[in-house]
Design a protein that fits this description.
By secondary structure, the protein is α/β, with parallel strands linked by helices. It folds into three domains: about 90 residues, Winged helix-like DNA-binding domain superfamily/Winged helix DNA-binding domain (Arc Repressor Mutant, subunit A, Orthogonal Bundle); about 100 residues, D-Maltodextrin-Binding Protein, domain 2; about 100 residues, D-Maltodextrin-Binding Protein, domain 2, CATH 3.40.190.10. About 45% of the residues lie in helices and about 25% in strands. It has eleven helices and ten strands. The strands form three sheets. The chain has a six-stranded mixed sheet with strand order 4-3-5-10-6-9, with helices on both faces. Strand 7, helix 8 and strand 8 form a beta-alpha-beta unit. Helix 1 crosses helix 3 and helix 1 crosses helix 4. The mean pLDDT is about 90.
Length: about 300
């Protein structure tokens, strides 16, 4: 049977009879004659080649084929209702764009990547969700998200068809409040010995790169805090509680928002950000825009 062979009006009549338990009550519910319901239900059964009901007293009982048909009929009508709601929503609101952002991605990075999709000509309704990397990948695989922005690429797994698009690789500098900058910024990096430091958690790829840089330069720091949330790390940095790493290209925003100045670049230390998506026949237009110009927005 081809899709256009099935009369969905007949399927509606079948669904109503199954819910009401009799043709008479289904006819009252639909405002049709008993003869119309009975005739078209018979046509559906002939088309499917199986009886969908069996008499039980004055009522009708679903056969095994009828129970199977009812499950699919309800799914079809639920899908139809979702289609109607989605089209109605598009008429009155911006199209939704759901993005997951991992905790390790700096808020300034996320803002630069995403703020343009709120403006014409795209002008989407942004739904931004923060979470752990593995959880967000699961939501993406279930099509509950359109995109995930992360500091690492998606793992290659047979059960997860995910595409990781490198947005860019950006150098990292150390930043500090005015007092810390004055105290430790004159002889960089040798003058950092004993400086209070706020670092990413050891699970963050940036942390291992920083540890290697500190060891290579024989610098011993006073680690006063470790954070999985980059925004919280910078908030402590704004309070002058320690030096902290951040993208060198965003020095102006970091000065404005956190009152911190760069002490110097961490040579050889960089951070990468990825836009992770699932292959779709009709991808969300915002995904392509972010992938195409993501790196330019981060350094622009």
């Amino acid at each position: 049977m081809k899709p256009d062979d099935l009369n969905y009006r007949h399927l509606l009549y079948f669904w109503a009879v199954a819910k009401e338990g009799s043709i008479t009550r289904a006819a009252e519910r639909l405002g049709l004659s008993v003869q119309t319901i009975s005739t078209q239900l018979g046509q559906l059964e002939r088309q499917l080649g199986q009886a969908l009901f069996a008499p039980q007293g004055r009522s009708l009982m679903l056969t095994e084929a009828g129970r199977t048909a009812l499950v699919h009929a309800e799914q079809i009508f639920q899908t139809g209702e979702k289609l109607r709601q989605a089209l109605a929503e598009r008429t009155h609101t911006r199209p939704k764009f759901s993005v997951g952002v991992t905790d390790a991605v700096p808020k300034l990075v996320a803002f630069r990547l995403l703020e343009s999709v709120l403006r014409p000509p795209l002008a989407v309704r942004l739904e931004c969700i923060e979470g752990e990397f593995e959880h967000l990948l699961g939501e993406l695989a279930l099509n509950r998200l359109d995109l995930v922005v992360a500091d690492r690429s998606a793992p290659q797994r047979a059960n997860l068809k995910l595409h990781s698009h490198l947005l860019g690789n950006f150098g990292i500098s150390l930043f500090g409040s005015a007092d810390l900058h004055k105290r430790y910024g004159k002889n960089f990096p040798q003058g950092l010995d004993g400086a209070p430091m706020l670092l990413p958690a050891r699970s963050d790829p940036l942390r291992s790169a920083m540890d290697a840089w500190l060891e290579a330069n024989e610098i011993r720091l006073d680690i006063v805090g470790e954070f999985t949330d980059s925004a919280l790390l910078k908030t402590f940095g704004r309070a002058g509680l320690g030096l902290f790493p951040a993208p060198a290209a965003m020095h102006a925003e970091i000065l404005s928002q956190f009152g911190a100045k760069p002490l110097g670049p961490l040579q050889g230390v960089s951070e990468s950000w990825y836009a992770i998506s699932t292959p779709k026949r009709v991808p969300h237009p915002a995904v392509a825009i972010i992938q195409a110009a993501g790196g330019e927005r981060l350094v622009g």
